[in-house]
Amino acid sequence: MEKANFKVDLNKCIGCGNCLNVCPGNMVGGHVLVMENNHPHLVDETNFSWKGCWKCEHCLAICPTGAISIFDINPEDVAKKPSPAIKEDLSRLMKYRRSCRDFKNEEIPSNIIDEMLDAVAHVPTGGNNKSLEFSVIYTKEAMGKLYKLYKNSNKQLSLFDTMDDYSELRIYNAPHLFIAHKAVSERFKDGAITEINLATAYFELIANAYGFGTIISTYSAELFASNKEILKFLNIPEGHKIMNVVGFGYSKYQYQRGVKKNKKINKII
User: Fold this and answer.
1) Domain boundaries, the chain
2) CB neighbourhood size of 264 (10 A)
3) What is the CATH number of domain 86-249?
4) What pLDDT is attached to residue 73?
5) Which residues of the chain are under the pLDDT cut of 70?
6) Does the N terminus or the C terminus of the chain have fewer Cβ atoms within 10 A?
């Protein structure tokens, strides 16, 4: 949007100033949100820069009375705070999830995939740059086209010529694919790679929260990145970096419990 459309319901605003305090543009030395007549005011509705509005909606999210709207988004339009049970449920999910290598021959309804992607769209990005893109295969038919492109152009890499379950791509018979990607500059290369990996982790976890099986493959990403036909099919622009591919779908088998893993933890006190 070319204009922030920052609005304050004066009947609800209590003048607490929380929106000013959490505004990233203010924090880096900008003059973005100020108090006027004990109410917040956005100084320049069109300044979207490092010291301007970051389009992060922190002001809307922090307001204790729901007095602020921005970008035509109102408090009642956004997600509410999760219940305290989330800490237990999320921890349990992370301990329970397993890599899936045997999927049912069944597609996930497209509206369910849309729901998951709506959640993953909120993955954090540096400076709220919002430059991540997702390429998602929604159908088994599209997956078949992808596999055919791969087979036709990479026969020398074929490991299992008699198999049709994409095992050589390390995604097995997953009916769907998720790929996060973005343009990478030399200056911000590490940050871009971090964002791609975060999006992958967010999607993999939300897919498991929905009860689906997932498999993460860096090998597939390497194969796809070197194949211009596949990149074109996936609508991945030239210059975009991909790090991982997530195959997902209904798992043929359901695990009954998690496992116990231990990691070396260096406690700094």
Assistant:
1) 7-77, 86-249
2) 4
3) 3.40.109.10
4) 96
5) 1, 154-168
6) C
**In Å, how far from its chain's centre is CA 228?**
24
SS3 letters across the chain: CCCCCCEECCCCCCCCCHHHHHCHHHHCCCCCEEEECCEEEECCCCCCCCCCCCCCCHHHHHCCCCCEEECCECHHHCCCCCCCCHHHHHHHHHHHCCECCCECCCCCCHHHHHHHHHHHCCCCCHHHCCCCEEEEECCHHHHHHHHHHHHHHCHHHCCCCCCCCCHHHCCCCCCEEEEEEEECCCCCHHHHHHHHHHHHHHHHHHHHHCCCEEEEEHHHHHHHHCCHHHHHHCCCCCCEEECCEEEEECECCCCCCCCCCCCCCCCCC
- CATH 3.30.70.20 correct for 7-77: yes
What distances in angstroms separate CA 193 from CA 127, 163, 172, 222, 240, one per listed residue?
A: 15, 33, 25, 14, 10
> What pLDDT was estimated at residue 187?
76
pLDDT of residue 50: 93
- Quote the pLDDT of residue 159: 41
What pTM does this model have? 0.89
Tokens (6 digits) for 200: 């992958």
Tokens (6 digits) for 17: 């100033």
pLDDT, position 160:
42
User: How many other CB atoms sit within 10 Å of the CB of residue 53?
Assistant: 27
